[in-house]
């Protein structure tokens, strides 16, 4: 693709960004198809509730918290309130269908974890989001209060860190002995709009592509292809008329100028310098407060969408972002 009215040859590889975006869309579609057919892209409902010990804490909680908020239920067999709260949390974990993962920790068998979290009494419920621990509540709280807390946790995870949860294969478990066939995949109602968006990108009509993707997301906010395409189209639209040398000069000469750092991060990304783009924005978030901090944080989340939530560079940057926010 050769964008019109641009003088960035050899500086910004927009074609590579577009190709990478298309490849990522195909990969996401393949994972979704695999999940619908019982493949490895989704987990069964039983995997939404896990028992965690000290040996597996880093793998099962810290690492998983880079893709989904992990709620930790500290409990013990002798604790009567735990026997009320535990089943409720397990039911909600399945009802929320992958928006959070429930990790159950038996404090009698895992005294070190209890000490590390400063647990004074049980039941105690914490969350880990992007590697950072957050206290939620203690005791057998009412269900309405627990739901409100979980909704807030999920909102924070999505808005601040781009954590949209994990896919759940509802067909992966059935009556014992029952043979499960692949679920039927209905034809998508947005094929025409998505195709129009792709054609707009090919014609360098970034505004048209943005609008087409937004039309899909207005009806289907979780549409993976539209989210990826929108992030890509908005990035291409932002950089097409930039003077790369001027942008980089501004960023170097004005380290405290948030807008200059955001523009330079866009150029870093389309130039293939992914870690530089992420690092620049994480540092900008660290150095600023209020609206300036929020602007840098939101742009970083948008760039996460361009690269993809499972990319190790995104996971590392989310963890770095969490450290400067909390």
From TrEMBL:
Pfam families: Thioredoxin (PF00085), TPR_19 (PF14559), TPR_20 (PF14561). Residues 37-155 form the Thioredoxin domain. It comes from the Bacteria. InterPro entries: Thioredoxin-like_sf, Thioredoxin_CS, Thioredoxin_domain, TPR-like_helical_dom_sf. This is Tetratricopeptide repeat protein.
């Amino acid at each position: 693709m050769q964008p019109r009215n641009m003088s960035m040859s050899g500086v910004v590889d927009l074609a590579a960004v577009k190709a990478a975006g298309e490849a990522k869309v195909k990969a996401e579609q393949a994972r979704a198809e695999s999940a619908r057919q019982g493949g490895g892209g989704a987990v069964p409902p039983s995997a939404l509730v896990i028992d965690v010990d000290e040996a597996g804490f880093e793998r099962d909680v810290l690492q998983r918290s880079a893709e989904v908020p992990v709620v930790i239920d500290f409990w013990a067999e002798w604790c009567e309130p735990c026997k009320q709260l535990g089943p409720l949390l397990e039911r909600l974990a399945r009802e929320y269908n992958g928006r959070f993962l429930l990790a159950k920790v038996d404090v009698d068998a895992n005294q070190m974890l209890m000490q590390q979290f400063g647990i004074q009494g049980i039941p105690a419920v914490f969350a880990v989001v992007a590697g950072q621990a957050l206290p939620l509540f203690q005791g057998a709280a009412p269900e309405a209060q627990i739901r409100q807390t979980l909704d807030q946790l999920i909102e924070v995870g999505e808005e601040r860190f781009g954590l949209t949860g994990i896919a759940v294969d509802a067909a992966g478990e059935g009556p014992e002995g029952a043979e499960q066939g692949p679920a039927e995949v209905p034809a998508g109602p947005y094929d025409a709009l998505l195709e129009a968006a792709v054609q707009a990108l090919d014609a360098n009509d970034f505004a048209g592509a943005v609008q087409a993707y937004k039309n899909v997301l207005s009806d289907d906010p979780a549409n993976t292809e539209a989210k990826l395409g929108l992030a890509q189209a908005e990035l291409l639209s932002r950089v097409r008329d930039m003077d790369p040398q001027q942008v980089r000069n501004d960023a170097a000469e004005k380290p405290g100028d948030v807008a200059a750092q955001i523009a330079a991060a866009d150029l870093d990304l389309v130039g293939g310098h992914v870690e530089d783009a992420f690092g620049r924005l994480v540092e900008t978030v660290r150095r600023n407060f209020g609206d300036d901090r929020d602007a840098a944080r939101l742009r970083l989340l948008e760039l996460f969408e361009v690269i993809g939530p499972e990319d190790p560079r995104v996971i590392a940057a989310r963890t770095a972002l969490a450290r400067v926010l909390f």
